[in-house]
Amino acid sequence: MLLRSRAVPAQLALRVLAHRLLSTSTSSGSLQWNLPPTVGRRLRTHGYAVVDDALPSQDLLTFRDELVNAAIDNTALLTANSTILVKKDGSSTLIPKHGIGEFDLSNAAVAHKLPQLARFSDSGDLIRVLQPLLFPDNERRLARQTVKAQINFGRGACFPLHFDTDASIDHRAVTAIMYLNEDYQSPDGGSIRVYPFPGAVVDIEPRLGRLVLFSSAWCLHRVLPSTANSRLCFTTWITTDEPSPYPKDPPSEPTDPDGDEAWEYLMYPTHRNHILKLVYADEWARSIVESHPAGHLHDLLLEQHFRDAEIIARAYGRYLPLLDRYLASGSLAPRVYGSEPRDEADVDPERKVAWF
Ligand SMILES: [Fe+2]
Q1: Does the bond joining 251 to the residue before it have cis omega, within 30 degrees of 0?
Q2: pTM of this prediction?
Q3: Nearest 5°: CA angle at 327, between 325 and 331?
Q4: CA 27 to CA 144: how far, in whole Å?
Q5: Which of 24, 113, 162, 190 fits 226 for a cystine, CB–CB 3.0-4.6 Å?
Q6: Cα of 221 to ligand 1 centre, how many Å?
Q7: What is the pLDDT of residue 11?
């Protein structure tokens, strides 16, 4: 499911008025990213990584002030995030989610309004820090970064399950989301939920200074409903020069649909992305309902989801007993990031899959 934008109603932006802030600081020069060396390995083994206090709080508050003040001053630059519905006849239409406004820093007027974030967007800062951690032998080259800042206006606003990109469409490799919510409380909701299958689901709260990174093409994720007046973040997508190594050289279909070879086949990234639509079919449907206003288009999105799931179930039917056994044997129940020491544990060899 790909995500695009259109104008956001001005009254939503006005909801942040109570939080109007005075910018008291400006950042200059490169940002001082604080990413531990373990981040690269964690991304490669788990598909996602979390870093707390990834930037000095002064820079975070500058970005937050700039974002809030821009939302109040110029709502015309704030666009609504939408889901693309591809209809049966091949035509497509945009279905706006409720309560999600975005500033696209590639827009010159937006960049003018958000100069500190624009400077970061143009800097390539995060690429320089992440390159030696994620690809220490330069196996792939991180090349460009694009940035969007986002405001979630609460009242249950959220995102459905999705991948950020399809590897056949663009070269986005890493998504990095920086959260700017100084007074975040757990009851506010709005956690990002990652589904690093075959690992367990993890909910990560959007706290100030927390950076969440994941594989853009292969890590399924969503945003849970938020009740905070405003949930603020900016997202950086990092693109490589070369396309993803997947789906090159996919494994050939095994003769035995029930053995190790079959598991390896299912865990190949392109196949894994398909079967996740089955594994999480009901949760996926609920997330579509939660994210979009009720109505005809919303019903069409649900129809499309179940139609896709049916096609995938037919295509992978011979592997369903193997998949069912895995689901029955291990718990995929969501847990909250940081609540268990197991979070940093190594991945079981049988759960190792390719992420980059
Ligand atoms: Fe996303």
Answers
A1: no
A2: 0.91
A3: 130
A4: 21
A5: 190
A6: 6
A7: 54
